[in-house]
Design brief:
Oligomer: single chain
Strand order of the largest sheet: 1-4-7-10-13
Shape: globular
Helix content: under 10%
Largest sheet: 5 strands, parallel
Order of helices and strands: EEEEEEEEEEEEEE
Structural class: mainly beta
Distance between the termini: 33 Å
Amino acid sequence: MHPAATIDGVWAASTKLYRVNIHGSVDGMKAGNNTLVQDSYIHDMSWFASDPNQGGGPTHNDGVQAFDGVSGVTLRHNTIDLSTTKDGNAALQDSASNTTVDNNWLDGGGCTLNFADHGHSLPGLVVTNTGSGGTRHSSARSC
């Protein structure tokens, strides 16, 4: 009801989320260890010109974000759409190991899939039926 630059939709760890509808926050979800998101809709994130979490710059909107040190994130059969979010970063911003992205429709952001390895590999990264082969929209791209 009261969007703010510091509010994300869901912070989850060791959780299974099915059929959730997340919208109106800066990031749709911060995914922690052993998090499954399935059959869900993440969309219409809120953009702000000033975000204290970004040093006072604009928000850095992601549909789902998983940080370095996290393991076991699975996104299965979701729609994650940042195409209507002003200057959205990524449908998935991922630095986690053992991430599975399967059969999703991902759209929008400067990079639809943004994997950041922080100087080390991302073991167990699996992307299937998503991207150029399974994406149903032409703006999908990985960075």
